[in-house]
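Recall the central idea of this unit: under ordinary conditions, the amino acid sequence of a chain determines the structure it adopts. In this exercise we apply that idea directly, starting from the sequence alone.
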Amino acid sequence: MNQLLSPGWAWYVAILTVVSLLGCLWVLRANSIKKDPGADAKLHGHNEWDGLREYDNPLPRWWSNLFYLTVFFSFGYLLLYPGLVVFPGLLNWTTESLYKDEVKQAKAEFDPIFDAYAKQDVKTVAADKGAVQIGARLFQTYCVQCHGTDMRGSKGFPNLVDGDWLYAGTPEGIEETILNGRNGVMPPFGEALKADQIQDVAQYVLSLSGRAGSADAAKRGEATFKETCAACHGADGRGNQALGAPNLTDNIWLYGGSLATIVETITKGRQGQMPAHKDLIGPARVHVLAAYVYAQAQEHGGPSAKP
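Accordingly, the structure predicted from this sequence is:
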């Protein structure tokens, strides 16, 4: 809060808060005593409402006492905690200190569990039901935003259970991906190739996965593909996991496999980033998370078509 408010505004808020509480006390006091104890109660000057009249009587004692307790509680809170901004409170409590205490407690409770799993290889951890349950919670916390709750991804975010891997799908490869992240880049060829060349290459890419298209255009596009695209995707179009270049022959598409989408990909290129989680959750937790992903891939994996 001190970072959000200048000293002037901080003092303004503090003074306004204290004055407001004192004002509440004054209003309560003024309405809790009878102005003229010997006189009869007078009407407040209002008309009747459905036979009801408001007299100038003090507030009921039980009611005013509840308000007094509320105001005194507010003063006590501001005395102990940093509600006034300019005063840290007698307890020196902060949200940062609370967070650090909770992290310290969590590390003391859970670190031994993760450290024990870290001493085992990913395959062994993947066979442990308890570890898989922990990995599932980690996945729900850190991964579902991109890969979905069913791990099947969406446009631009890989399906993790279809048996098709941009990078190595081995236990070590999966752990490496989560630890250090990936940066997948498909360079744009809109300026390097003519429009008709791009159309021909797109037709050839369709033919690699058995998709129907123009045979003549695909034949022309093959030469351009081998000159321009084979360096990453291979002469046979089966990709290169070391580079993150996708296999173009399996009819599994990260951004979509329609002719228009393929043309867009070739023309404008693609950039995909998998963020690194090494510093975010730590290597021990990444180890368990990788085991979960590997276990799910083994359970549901296998080649599948995705238009």
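Residues 96 and 102 are 10 Å apart (CA to CA).
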